């Protein structure tokens, strides 16, 4: 949830996204979402889209309804380190 709030910019916006779907834990975003529509508007367009997309994927994995399908913390750390290395 912290990653989601960092990505979208506030707890209020993350709550709104979660409320768009009755089963937000598995996939709280519609299939046809555009990263620019959910990302914190204060970031503008100065970010690698690939990195933002991978963060969304990581968020979805971390909030999977099936606890067994959620990544281990080491996997989360590895994914974040990989994402941090992505450049435009």
Give a short summary of the structure.
The chain is an all-alpha fold. The chain has helices spanning 2-8, 11-19, 24-27, 35-38, 49-62, 73-84. Helix 5 runs antiparallel to helix 6 (73-84).
Give a written overview of the molecule:
- With 88 residues, the protein is mainly alpha-helical.
- It has one domain.
- Helices cover 57% and strands 0% of the residues.
- The chain is built from six helices and no strands.
- The longest helix has 14 residues.
- The protein is globular.
- About 7% of the residues have low confidence.
Describe how the helices and strands are arranged.
Elements: H1 2-8, H2 11-19, H3 24-27, H4 35-38, H5 49-62, H6 73-84
Helix pairs in contact: 5-6
Number of helical segments with 4 or more residues = 6
Give average pLDDT, whole number: 80
Query: What is the count of structural domains?
Result: 1
Total number of beta strands:
0
Distance between the termini: 25 Å
The run of helices and strands is HHHHHH
- Give the helix/strand class: mainly alpha
Strand content: under 5%
What global shape is seen? globular
Low-confidence stretches: 21-26
Radius of gyration: 13 Å
| Biggest β-sheet strands, sense, barrel | none
Percent range for helical residues?
55-70%
């Amino acid at each position: 949830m912290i990653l989601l709030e960092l990505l979208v910019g506030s707890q209020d916006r993350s709550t709104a996204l979660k409320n768009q779907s009755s089963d937000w834990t598995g996939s709280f975003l519609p299939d046809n979402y555009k990263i620019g529509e959910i990302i914190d508007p204060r970031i503008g367009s100065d970010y690698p889209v690939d990195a933002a997309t991978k963060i969304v994927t990581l968020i979805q994995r971390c909030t999977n309804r099936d606890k067994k399908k959620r990544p281990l913390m080491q996997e989360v750390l590895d994914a974040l380190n990989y994402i941090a290395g992505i450049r435009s």
